[in-house]
Write a structure and sequence with these properties.
heterotrimer; A: alpha/beta; 8-stranded mixed β-sheet; 4-stranded antiparallel β-sheet; 11 helices; 12 strands; globular; C: mainly alpha; about 75% helix
C-alpha cells in the first residue's frame, strides 16, 4: 500500500486563505453533534411490545474545520446510522446538529436542505450508489439541477468536477456505471458529492470495497482534494490502518455509543478504553514473531435491541465491576483533547482500578 | 464554480479515440435482433395490425353485406377467400374488420390500466408507509377476484356493451399492474443511488422523475405488454358470452359465438375467428417473453 | 409459526370484507332500482313490503350493507328472481359441478405442467427446451372457449366418440367420465401452460444452484438428486397450483358455456341474461370467497413447507 506522508497543511505553513463560505470562524467546529439518538422500531409483534433497535444513543462529538475525523467500530456499532443522521437522510429521534454555528432544526425541511448543500456523503457500494440507467454526467448533474442550476450549467459543473477527480469528461461523461471499474466508480461518487460544493464530506467506508492498489490511489486523491478545496472529512472505516493514515482525530464507537475520542496518534499509542485497546491489539502484525494465540476480544457484540445496562461493553470487558452494570460511564478527560467513557479510566467513578 | 487552476491536467484526447458509449437500450436492440422467434412474431403482429388499420383501403367486401343464398360457404369459394358466415357475410372481411374491434378492446384497457395502475403503484411504492398501505390494501381487495369473474360480473351487471366491457377490463388489470409497479418501485427505492439523490435535498417528485422513473418504466411496460394477450382473449370472451360488442358489429369473440351453432355443418368456418385470437395472443406472448429476455441481462 | 398463521388469517379478514362490499355494490351498479332488482316480480305486495322492510331500502347504504352481511353470514343469499328458490340452493349444486370440472382439470394440468416444466428445465437451452417453452406459451395463449369448440368439432362432430355438451344422464360412471373428458381437457390447457412455465423457471433456477452440482459430485444418482430438486421446487409450484385451481373456479364460465356444463359459471351466465341479480350476487360472492380462502390455504401450506418462513420476519421500519 502506498503510504505518503500526512498532508503538510496540518503542520506549519502559511495559513490557508479564508473560505468565503465560512460563517462561524476558524475556531467554530464545522459540525457539532449533540446527544443524537435514533431508535428503530422493528416490525412484527403488537404495537406495545415491538422490539426497539437502539442504533445510536446520545452520541455527541464535534468535527473541526479542516480536519479529518475518523470513526471506527465493528459492524452494528452505529457508524452508518450516525453518518445518515449527519447528512439529514435520517431524522434523529432527539438531539441536535449544529452546522457552522447554526442549529439545524430536524423538523424543518428547509433547514435540512440547507445542511445538505454543505454536507455530502460518499457511499460504500460504488455500484449501487450510481443509477444504472443514467449517464455519469446526468447522475452528477442531478444535484446542481436540484439546487437550481440550468441544464447547461449543471452539465458544465459535472464535467469540471469529473476533471477534478481525474476522469476525462470527453471519455466518461456519457458513460454508464456498468462500463467503469470499481475505482473509477468511486471517483464518480466523489465527483457527485463534490458537485454540490460541500464543505464537509462524509466518507462511509468509501474505500472498503476497493482493491488495495486502487484504494491507495483514491485515498491520495481524497487528500489532494481536501487540501485544494478546503474540505473537512468524516472518515468512517473499519480498517484501523487506513483511519490512522487519513485522520487527525479519531472517534471509537461501540453499540451505538461513543467510547473514546481524541487525536489519532494519542489513541493509537495509548488507548484508554478497554474496547479501543482490544480493537487496536486485534490488528495483525507484519512481524511473524509477534503471534497471537488468544483473541483480544471474545464473543459477539450483544444485540442492539436489548443492550447491556450501564456500560454497554461490560459483558466483554475484563475490567467489569458492579459499578459498570449500574451506571453508564460518561466521556471523561484523559489528557489533552482526549476523552474516554470508562469507569476504570475515570477517577472518582467508584471503579476499583482508580482512586475514589 | 470550480477554479480552473485546480483542474488536474488531462492530456488532450484524440477525438478518434472517443467511441460511442454502449447504451443499455442499444444492447437490448442488439439482443433482440439476434432472436428470430421474437422477430417473426413481431412481424406477424405488425402485418395483422397494418392489415387491420388499412382495412378500408384493401378492397374487401362489405362486412355487413348479408346474403341468404350464400350462407356458410366453405373457404375457397370463388369471391370469398375464407368463406361466409351464417348470414352470408364474407368471412375475410369480417375477420379483418373484427380485428379492429378485438385488438382495440384488447389494447385499450391495458393502456389505461397501465397509466392508472402504474401511477398508483409507483407512488405507493416510493412513498411507503401509510399511503402505501391504504392504496395497496384497496388494490388487494380487487385483486382477490379472478380476472374473468370480475370482468364478467362488472360488465354483466352494468348491462354489457362495448363501453362497459372496456371499463370492466380496465378495472380487472389495474390491480395486477399496480402491484407489479409497487413492488418494482419499492425495490428501486431502496437502492443506494436513491439515498444519494435524497442526500442532495431533492424533493420527492424530483427524485421520482429524475431517478426512479427510468428504472421502473421498462419493467412495468414489459409486464403490461404481457397482459395484452390476456386482454384480447378475455375481451373476445366477453363478446362470446354476449357481454361485449353487440351484433352486427364484427368482433372475433362474437363471431365465434354466432358461428357456434354451425360447427356441425361448417366446422372450418366456425373455428376461424378463434384462430385469429389464438395467433394474435400467442405472438404477443412470445414477443413479451423475448423482450423480457433481452432486457434481463445485466450488461 | 402458529402466530404467523393466525396473523395471516387476520390479514385476510379486511380483504374478505372488502370483497363482500364489492359484491354488495354489484346490485347498485346495475341500472335500475335495486329494490325491483332483488325482489322477484309478481311477489304479492304484502310480502314485497316485508322484504323491503327487511332489506331496508329506505335506509342509508351502509346500513343496508350490514343487514345484507348479517343475512349472508346466516346463510341467506337472497331469492332468485327467476326460479323463486333460495339463491344458496341454486349456487351450491352448481359449484359442486364446477368443482368436478376444476378438480379434474387441475389434476391434468398438474401432471402435464410439472412433467413438461421439469423436462424443459433439465434440457435447459437446447431445442427441446425451447420447443416445450413454445408449447407452454401456446397453452397460455389459447382461448379456452375456442379450444372447446375445436375439440367438439374433432371428437364429437367428426369422430363422434365423445358427447358435445352437458353432463349427461349420470347413470353410470363411464357416462359421467365421457361427459367430463372434453370440458376438463379444455379447461386444463391454460393452467397446464402456466404451471409448466412456473415449474420450468423454478426448477431451472434450482438446477443452477451450486448445491445441485455438489450433490452430483458426491456421487448421488440422478434420480435422488431430482428428489432434492423437487423438494426445493415444491413450494413455488404448490403456490401456482393452488392459485390456478382457485382461478379455474372463477374462470370456468367460458368453458362451461361452450359445453353447457351446469356449473357455477353457467349459472352466472344465465343469471346475467335473465337479470337475476340475487343469483349473480350470490355466485360472485361464493366464487370470490373461495378464491380468497384458497389463497390463504396456499400461503399457509407454503409456510408449513418452507423452513425459511417459519422464522419470524423482523423488518426494520425505516424513517
Amino acid at each position: 500500500m502506498v503510504v505518503s506522508a500526512p498532508p503538510a497543511a496540518a503542520t506549519a505553513e502559511a495559513p490557508p486563505a479564508p473560505d468565503p463560505r465560512d460563517v462561524g470562524g476558524p475556531r467554530q467546529p464545522m459540525l457539532i453533534a449533540e446527544r443524537l439518538t435514533k431508535h428503530f422500531t422493528l416490525r412484527g409483534g403488537s404495537p406495545g411490545r415491538r422490539a426497539v433497535v437502539r442504533a445510536v444513543d446520545e452520541v455527541s462529538f464535534d468535527v473541526r474545520k479542516g480536519e479529518t475525523l475518523g470513526i471506527v467500530g465493528e459492524s452494528g456499532c452505529g457508524k452508518s446510522t450516525t453518518a445518515r443522521l449527519l447528512i439529514g437522510l435520517t431524522r434523529p429521534d432527539s438531539g441536535a446538529l449544529v452546522f457552522d454555528g447554526e442549529e439545524v432544526v430536524a423538523s424543518s425541511g428547509v433547514a435540512v436542505r440547507r445542511l445538505q448543500r454543505s454536507v455530502q456523503m460518499v457511499f460504500q457500494d460504488s455500484y449501487a450508489s450510481l443509477n444504472p440507467r443514467l449517464t455519469l454526467q446526468e447522475t452528477i448533474a442531478f444535484g446542481p439541477r436540484v439546487c437550481g442550476d440550468s441544464r447547461a450549467a449543471a452539465r458544465e459543473r459535472a464535467q469540471s468536477v469529473l476533471r477534478l477527480v481525474g476522469l476525462d469528461p470527453a471519455l466518461f461523461a456519457r458513460r454508464y456505471p456498468h462500463e467503469l471499474s470499481g475505482g473509477q466508480r468511486q471517483r464518480v461518487n466523489i465527483a457527485r458529492a463534490l458537485a454540490m460544493g460541500p464543505r464537509l464530506l462524509i466518507l462511509d467506508e468509501a474505500v472498503s470495497a476497493l482493491d488495495k492498489s486502487i484504494e491507495a490511489q483514491v485515498l491520495n486523491l481524497l487528500q489532494e482534494l481536501k487540501a485544494r478545496l478546503s474540505l473537512t472529512y468524516v472518515f468512517i472505516s473499519h480498517d484501523l490502518n487506513v483511519v490512522r493514515f487519513m485522520s487527525e482525530r479519531v472517534l471509537v464507537m461501540y453499540l451505538g455509543k461513543v467510547v473514546e475520542v481524541g487525536p489519532v496518534d494519542r489513541i493509537y499509542d495509548n488507548p484508554r478504553h478497554p474496547y479501543t485497546r482490544a480493537l487496536l491489539s486485534s490488528r495483525l502484525s507484519m512481524n511473524p514473531r509477534e503471534r497471537r494465540t488468544i483473541p483480544p476480544l471474545a464473543g459477539e457484540p450483544p444485540s442492539l435491541i436489548d443492550p447491556p445496562s450501564g456500560c454497554r461493553f461490560r459483558t466483554r470487558c475484563a475490567l467489569a465491576e458492579g459499578i459498570c452494570r449500574a451506571v453508564a460511564p460518561a466521556l471523561s478527560a484523559q489528557g489533552e483533547d482526549h476523552l474516554a467513557a470508562c469507569h476504570a479510566a475515570t477517577p472518582g467513578s467508584g471503579h476499583g482500578a482508580v482512586a475514589a | 464554480m470550480t477554479d480552473r487552476a485546480l483542474e488536474l491536467a488531462a492530456p488532450e484526447t484524440p477525438r478518434s479515440w472517443v467511441r460511442r458509449p454502449a447504451s443499455y437500450w442499444g444492447g437490448v436492440a442488439t439482443r433482440l435482433a439476434r432472436d428470430p422467434v421474437t422477430l417473426i412474431c413481431a412481424a406477424i403482429l405488425l402485418a395483422i395490425v397494418l392489415v387491420v388499420i388499412f382495412a378500408p383501403l384493401i378492397g374487401l367486401d362489405d362486412p355487413y353485406q348479408q346474403s341468404v343464398v350464400r350462407r356458410l360457404k366453405p373457404p375457397g369459394t370463388p369471391g370469398h377467400l375464407l368463406g361466409t358466415d351464417e348470414l352470408g357475410r364474407d368471412l375475410l372481411a369480417r375477420l379483418v374488420y373484427g380485428g379492429r374491434t378485438s385488438l382495440l378492446m384488447g389494447f385499450l384497457p391495458v393502456l389505461i390500466a397501465t397509466l392508472v395502475g402504474g401511477t398508483l403503484g409507483i407512488v405507493a411504492g416510493y412513498a411507503g408507509g401509510l399511503i402505501n398501505t391504504a392504496v395497496m390494501r384497496t388494490i388487494d381487495v380487487f385483486y382477490a377476484f379472478p380476472s374473468v369473474l370480475l370482468a364478467v360480473a362488472i360488465s354483466g351487471v352494468l348491462g354489457g356493451g362495448v363501453r362497459n366491457g372496456l371499463l370492466a377490463l380496465t378495472l380487472v388489470f389495474i390491480p395486477s399492474i399496480a402491484r407489479v409497479s409497487e413492488s418494482i418501485t419499492m425495490h428501486v427505492s431502496t437502492q443506494d443511488f436513491v439515498d444519494a439523490a435524497r442526500a442532495t435535498g431533492a424533493y420527492p417528485h424530483q427524485i421520482l422523475i429524475g431517478h426512479v422513473l427510468k428504472n421502473v418504466v421498462a419493467p412495468i411496460l414489459v409486464f403490461a405488454s404481457s397482459l395484452i394477450s390476456i386482454s384480447i382473449v378475455i375481451a373476445a370472451g366477453l363478446s362470446f358470452l354476449g357481454l361485449g360488442v353487440a351484433p352486427p358489429i364484427p368482433e372475433w369473440g362474437l363471431m365465434l359465438s354466432t358461428l357456434r351453432p354451425a360447427i356441425y355443418v361448417a366446422p372450418l368456418n366456425a373455428v376461424l375467428p378463434g384462430v385469429m385470437i389464438f395467433v394474435t395472443s400467442m405472438c404477443f406472448n412470445m414477443m413479451s417473453d423475448g423482450f423480457r429476455n433481452a432486457m434481463d441481462v445485466k450488461a | 409459526m402458529l402466530l404467523f398463521a393466525v396473523k395471516r388469517l387476520l390479514y385476510v379478514l379486511p380483504i374478505a370484507l372488502g370483497v363482500s362490499v364489492i359484491c354488495f355494490m354489484l346490485v347498485y351498479l346495475a341500472p335500475g332500482d335495486p329494490a325491483s332488482a332483488l325482489i322477484p316480480d309478481n311477489t304479492p305486495p304484502a310480502i314485497a313490503a316485508q322484504i323491503r322492510e327487511a332489506y331496508g331500502f329506505d335506509k342509508p347504504v351502509p346500513v343496508q350493507y350490514l343487514r345484507w352481511l348479517s343475512r349472508v353470514l346466516a346463510g341467506d343469499l337472497g331469492t332468485s328472481t327467476s326460479t323463486r328458490r333460495p339463491v344458496l340452493s341454486e349456487v351450491l349444486p352448481a359449484m359442486l359441478n364446477t368443482f368436478k370440472l376444476a378438480g379434474g382439470a387441475i389434476l391434468i394440468a398438474c401432471i402435464a405442467g410439472i412433467a413438461l416444466g421439469a423436462a424443459g428445465a433439465y434440457r435447459g437451452g437446447r431445442l427441446s427446451d425451447r420447443a416445450i417453452g413454445a408449447v407452454g406459451i401456446a397453452g397460455i395463449s389459447v382461448p379456452p372457449y375456442w379450444l372447446g369448440m375445436v375439440l367438439i368439432v374433432v371428437f364429437s362432430v367428426n369422430l363422434g366418440i365423445l358427447p358435445a355438451t352437458g353432463m349427461g344422464e349420470q347413470q353410470t360412471l363411464g357416462d359421467q367420465l365421457r361427459h367430463l373428458v372434453l370440458p376438463t381437457l379444455t379447461l386444463a390447457v391454460v393452467p397446464a401452460g402456466i404451471i409448466a412455465r412456473s415449474v420450468r423457471s423454478a426448477v431451472g433456477e434450482i438446477l443452477q444452484q451450486e448445491f445441485v452440482q455438489t450433490l452430483h459430485a458426491n456421487g448421488l444418482p440422478p434420480a435422488r438428486v431430482f428428489l432434492h430438486v423437487a423438494r426445493n421446487a415444491a413450494p413455488p409450484a404448490l403456490a401456482v397450483l393452488g392459485l390456478e385451481f382457485a382461478r379455474l373456479l372463477g374462470g370456468s364460465i367460458l368453458v362451461e358455456t361452450v359445453f353447457s356444463w351446469p356449473g357455477s359459471g353457467f349459472l352466472l351466465n344465465s343469471a346475467i341474461f335473465s337479470r337475476d341479480l340475487p343469483v349473480v350476487q350470490g355466485t360472485v360472492l361464493a366464487l370470490a370467497m373461495f378464491f380468497v380462502v384458497t389463497n390463504v390455504i396456499v400461503d399457509l401450506l407454503q409456510m408449513a413447507f418452507d423452513p425459511r418462513f417459519k422464522r419470524a420476519r423482523a423488518a426494520v421500519a425505516r424513517r
